[in-house]
Amino acid sequence: MSAIMDVKDLQSIKQRYNIVGNCDALNHVLNVAMQVAPTDVSVLIFGESGVGKEIIPRVIHDSSPRRREKYFAINCGSIPEGTIDSELFGHVKGSFTGAINDSPGYFGVANKGTLFLDEVGELPLATQARLLRVLETGEYIPVGGTEIRKTDVRIVAATNVNIQKAISEGRFREDLYYRLNTISIQMPPLRERGEDIVLLFRLFAMQMAEKYRMERVQLTDDAKQMLMRYKWPGNVRQLKNITEQISILSKERVITPEILAKFIPQDRESTQLAVLPHSTGDHSFENEREILYKILYDMRNNVNDMRREISQLKKQIEDVQAKPSTTISPMGHISPITPISPMLEDAEAEEYVEAEAENLNLNDLSRTMLEKALERNNGNRKKAAQELGISDRTLYRRLKQYGM
Question: Rounded to two decimals, what is the model's pTM?
């Protein structure tokens, strides 16, 4: 491979393809592209949607020995699954409805040239198998045909999906990945390109001014800083879109942060880094998930309290049933006890137990007992209720009845 390009050659490439930016990551990408151009090795370009991946295959083709041959850019994600094999590998007449003539497909017409397969991660598995054969042997069979055809095509592919994840999920062939990825190029996202963002804004603003014969919009220093702090999830494509909006809709030609804020989306997901909750003594719910956890935690505690109360009431009823049909309360009252039918279902028995226990305890509780229980528990009603073997609600009703 050739040596690293000097600054003059690098600027020449940028001017030829209208590439704006001086960040190290972009310069590295262009240098790698120029180094692999004279060869026939396959190149796989990685990068988020909107970063400008489509420029690199053009640079590679135009700087290669194939530059006088045909170049085709194909978006694999935009071609329906039912027709993509025919688009790529051609078909014979009558192979399917609408196939009124033979078609050579892209691999046929691009022979000796270059094919750029954008969004290659969207290819169906069956098409991936066909593509792998072409890459390995240069051979393919048109849809509906039986004759093997040969082609000599340079492949440059690009994707914005996580190929390793797609392989682990069975959506992309691992052998095809290694065949495509002889040389990999990582396009930097716009948010990592620093002052390139301002340069691109200036370019797009200038293009709009020339196209519509209007005064060019300019950024204040504070607005430039705001532009560079934004995360740009849509990358260069989003920046161009926003620049065009500002150029057309803004009455002011000098753009301040206040004006810029009207055009940049202000949702937290796309503009800010995640904010960790502050460590304070009070609970600070930063999102709905934490609130939901709190609700579920409280519900679990309430259920545990109810289970404990039911268990205590059952034990009291069992003790009462073990005694004669009447029992004398500590206050001298005689309360009849009705035995629980063994034929009751569990749910009915629990309701019966709870009702009988509440009636029993309500009859037995006197003002004096309540006062002593509260005194022993320092006024804690929950603990007093547990000592008396009744629920909190029963205790509260009894206190209200006595005016306590």
Answer: 0.64
